[in-house]
Amino acid sequence: MKFVIVDYSEIYYGGIAKIERPKKIVGKFVQLRHADTEYLVFSPKEFTRYHADLVEKFCSDRGIDGTYNSRVKRFDIHDPSWTVTGGGKFEADVDGKRLRLYDDSMAYGKFVSKGLKEKILSAKGMSAYKVEIE
User: 123: how many CB neighbours lie within 10 A of its CB?
Assistant: First the structure.
């Protein structure tokens, strides 16, 4: 299965907030699957308050239709070939080359941790990182 990391940190810090990207970033992440591809999508907490906001942003960028339910803070994708498999929170230390994944998503449940560390380490630019999964 193909593995793709999407990180909205640059878009937020450089494009929206117009500030230098901090060396340590805290935020949310979600896992999605479509056909033979798994996506791991990161966003700073200042950019997407809820996991649903992150899923909505990802889908909007790719033209994937869905519905945002603000009452339960959940974005449901209309295309059944797309699945949100879970989510959580993250801490990234760019200088220390450390990535910590933990917690879960109230809207989408616990992320799938099996094999995730190996997938992350195989992604471009991530081989030198220390990945901690709780």
Answer: 13
